[in-house]
Design brief:
Elements: H1 10-20, E1 36-41, H2 51-58, H3 61-64, E2 67-72, H4 77-86, E3 91-95, H5 96-104, E4 112-116, E5 123-128, E6 143-147, H6 151-162, E7 171-175, H7 180-185, E8 191-195, H8 199-206, E9 210-214, E10 225-229, H9 231-236, H10 238-257, H11 259-269, H12 275-289, H13 302-314
Parallel strand pairs: 1-2, 1-3, 6-7, 6-8
Antiparallel strand pairs: 3-10, 4-10, 5-8, 5-9
Helix pairs in contact: 2-10, 2-11, 10-11, 11-12
Length: 336
Amino acid sequence: MFRRSRVLAATLLATALAMSGCSGDDGDGASAEGTDKVAYITAFGAVGRDSFAWVAKEKGYFAEVGIEVDIKKGAGNAQNLTALKSGQVQFASLDFTGAVIQAGKGEFTDWRAVAAVHQQTLISVMTTKDTDITGPNDLAGKTMATGKGSVTELLFPAYAKLAGLDPATVKIEGVQATALNGLMASRQVDALGTFLLSRDALAAASKKEVVVLPYSDYLRDLFGNAIITTPGLIEKDSDLVRRFTGALLKGLQYTVDHPEEAATILNKAEPTYPVASGVGEIKAMTPYVVPAGGAPIGSMDEGRVARTIAILQGSGLMPSGLSPANVVDLNIVPKT
């Protein structure tokens, strides 16, 4: 789909690239013979959890497999799925559970996961030690802020029930995600529903010790972020999808193995993002990236995806009818 030949006229190349949403061409719109140009959008901005894309580019892993990548900064599932659907990007990272819910509701269906970034969800309840909240049952009678309409908010009832807590006893306030840490730091709420990678940011904002209660303690089958593309691209150029995915996962492995270097590479791309923050996020996510039992990085399996769907359906978050094949391409994804 993205093969560029020297025999094509420059005008045709420019037209084709504009239609595909790719960028970063040479001055005449041409690329080197045999090089595939694609665009990729991160899960959210340019932060530690997404640094592996810049690492893969900086270390030459994409170039090694004949790919030139334009990395764009994402802003969550809705924007990333829209960018993929419109052809602005060919690959994206996003929260897998949230995307499954949207697919199950028929909102965004033209995508398939090709690798898992996080083997378990990073969604957590987070609070400060002075609240005396040390477990899920301590949330009874308390107020918890979450991103309005976020997966964290949607999944809380399922998490609470599995933890033995009546979700109706917890007051949920849906707010802008950027307001969460400030609300907790000023003790306007008792806890947050957020991502565990924001632990250091909350500690800095509150100047207090942070307590984290991971959803994965009870919702063990849910994946975190995943890499996705369109079924159309898989059908037309599965070799490109495999090469891209392999190079990106190589960058992910290098990132968790060398967090300081990875954070430094990210800082070159995003100078306003501190190296120390990148290192902290990378180290925090590393236990969630490496699969158990020696499975290859990026692994997903049909059984776990089926259980994810069952959990979401059983929680009333989407109707029945979705199958693993609707959200994961098991011919591309690394096998456990």
